[in-house]
C-alpha cells in the first residue's frame, strides 16, 4: 500500500478539521469550542491545527470561507428561475438575507465571523459576489433597465445592504419578525435604481 505524501496528509487533515470545526462552532460558538476536543474528534492532535491554519482564528476563517462560498451558490440557485436580470439580482439579495435564518450561518458567519475576523465586507469571498453584482449593474444600465449609475458604487451599496440586513436579522431578538420588514425595505431601496421602463418590466 502506497504511503501518502505529507501534502496529501495535510490536505486530508485540513478537510477533517474544517468539518469538525464547522460542527463545533455551530453547536458551541467560536469562543466555546475546545480545540483539544475538536482535533480529538477526528483522531488528530492539537498540533495538526497549526500547519494548516496557524491558530484557532485561522480555522474559523477557513470555515467562514467555506460557508460563505456555499451561501453565494445558494443565492445564485435561488435566482436561477427568476424571469429577468433585475429579478435575478433582487432574488439573490433576498436569498442571502434569508440565510440569516439558518442556524449554522447565523452563528458562524454572521455573529462569530464579524466578532473575531472583522468587517465581513473585507472577506475574500465577498469579492466574487461584488463582481457579479457589478457586471449585472453594467448590463442593466446599458439596456436601460436601471438608471445610469457608477457600477462600483451601486454594487457596493446593494451588496452592503443585503449583508447588513443579514447581520441585523442575525443579531435580532426576533429574527422571524425582522425578516419580512428587512426584505420589504431592501426591495424599496433597490427599486430606486430602476428606470420607468424598468419598473414597468419588473411589475
TrEMBL record:
Domain HTH tetR-type: start-end pairs: 11-71
InterPro entries per the UniProt record, alphabetical: Homeodomain-like_sf, HTH-type_TetR-like_transc_reg, HTH_TetR, Rv0078-like_C
Entry keyword annotation includes Magnesium: no
Keywords attached to this entry: DNA-binding
Pfam families, A to Z: TetR_C_41, TetR_N
Regions recorded as binding DNA: 34-53
Protein's recorded name: TetR/AcrR family transcriptional regulator
Amino acid at each position: 500500500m502506497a504511503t501518502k505524501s505529507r501534502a496529501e496528509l495535510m490536505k486530508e487533515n485540513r478537510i477533517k478539521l474544517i468539518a469538525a470545526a464547522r460542527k463545533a462552532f455551530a453547536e458551541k460558538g467560536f469562543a466555546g469550542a475546545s480545540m483539544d476536543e475538536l482535533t480529538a474528534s477526528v483522531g488528530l492532535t492539537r498540533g495538526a491545527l497549526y500547519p494548516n491554519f496557524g491558530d484557532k482564528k485561522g480555522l474559523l476563517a477557513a470555515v467562514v470561507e467555506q460557508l460563505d462560498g456555499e451561501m453565494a451558490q445558494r443565492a445564485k440557485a435561488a435566482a436561477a428561475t427568476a424571469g429577468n436580470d433585475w429579478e435575478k439580482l433582487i432574488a439573490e439579495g433576498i436569498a442571502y438575507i434569508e440565510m440569516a435564518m439558518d442556524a449554522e450561518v447565523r452563528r458562524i458567519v454572521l455573529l462569530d465571523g464579524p466578532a473575531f475576523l472583522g468587517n465581513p465586507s473585507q472577506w475574500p469571498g465577498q469579492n466574487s459576489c461584488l463582481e457579479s453584482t457589478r457586471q449585472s449593474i453594467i448590463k442593466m444600465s446599458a439596456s436601460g433597465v436601471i438608471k445610469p449609475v457608477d457600477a462600483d458604487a451601486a454594487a457596493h451599496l446593494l451588496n452592503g445592504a443585503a449583508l447588513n440586513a443579514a447581520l441585523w436579522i442575525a443579531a435580532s431578538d426576533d429574527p422571524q419578525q425582522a425578516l419580512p420588514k428587512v426584505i420589504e425595505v431592501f426591495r424599496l431601496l433597490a427599486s430606486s435604481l430602476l428606470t420607468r421602463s424598468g419598473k414597468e418590466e419588473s411589475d
